[in-house]
Sequence to fold (414 residues):
Amino acid sequence: MADTAHPELRIDGERLLARIQALHEVSPIDGGGNCRLALTDDDLAGRDLVVTMMRDLGLTVSIDVVGNVVAVRAGHTHTAPVMCGSHIDTVRTGGRYDGNYGVLAGLEIIETLDTAGVITKRPLAVGFFTDEEGARFAPDMLGSLVYVGGLAVEEALDTVAIDGARLGDELSRIGYAGSTPCPGVVPHAFVELHVEQGPVLELEGVTIGAVESVQGISWTELTIVGQSNHAGTTPMRLRHDAGYAAASVAVFVRGLAGELGGNQVATVGACDLHPNLVNVVAGRAVLTVDLRNTSEDGLREAERRLFGFLDELAVTEGVTITKRTLARFEPVIFDPGVVDLVEQTALAQGHTVRRMPSGAGHDAQMLARVCPTAMVFVPSAKGLSHNPAEHTEPADLEAGANVLLHVMLALAAE
Ligand code: GLV
Ligand code: MN
Ligand code: MN
Fold:
């Protein structure tokens, strides 16, 4: 069959759902979600399943030095592939669609093309990148960052997890320290299909998001050291309370987001107190601040105000506050041509479509450094994500995969 766009071609929705269910059954957690923190035994089980699916489809699978997995389907020409993909690691309380959907939809597209006997001009590739979530090893999008040459391999391998493990050791332990070098092959284009993870598409009754940008991300870990002391005997004025200081930071950033308005969001998502006992003033707190904004200037202003507040807090509470940057990525603008292609493809398939920014971080924002890139979003029920209850309707999953199919066919014919 010729390598034209095959406008009639559609993926098999049942087969896509079966793959999503199979990957969900690896490491399921209460509430319908998954826990596959990067490079744990659960991640290993997920990786093994997806690599088996890739090999069963006859794809050429390579594993690189930081564990990114890329599966290639040959085209008529030996040119740069059109690549899709995402990640299969999850946060500790993850949903079954975040990342997984984009990878498994890619495999469904391959099977659809196999069944129809379509060979594209360019090769097609489906990848999954190591540690997209950053929940175990910061920064997030670590594997795709290394893939595009944005972080040195040695530095990535030396990254230490929240549980103290070294990334390189964990990679070897689970058998995913591959030999394919990084930076990896530069695709002709990269398109990531993902659930929105926010409420916009559902609220507006729109099926497809043509993602134009990803907001900037600033993650800072704060270590606050005060004086551990007796909760009953220590007068309030004499306290150096790391717990109080940590709580103040959480309250401050919430107010900051309100004051700055616009797209500014702010979260204290992790907080560890020591010794964490009812009758002891906390002597130490380790907490994280996640700031995001679609505007780099806005994000810088949020950081400036936060850091100013920390300086004041250190003095007023008599504590020391040490900052460590876990992740810092500027906002990313996707390729207008690929965004247009996503929008036009969705419209041609009769879907409602909306251009939008992404609130979450994605591997696509790293691939955008090296090739034309965009994303396709589908609705997330109630806007829930990083939550086991994350859900997307089967019809929407199917619609997104069909848009991705035809976007890839068009790019692969170039
Ligand atoms: C990744 O999912 C992030 O946006 O934190
Ligand atoms: Mn994701
Ligand atoms: Mn996620």
About this structure: The two ends are 17 Å apart (CA to CA). The longest strand covers residues 216-225.
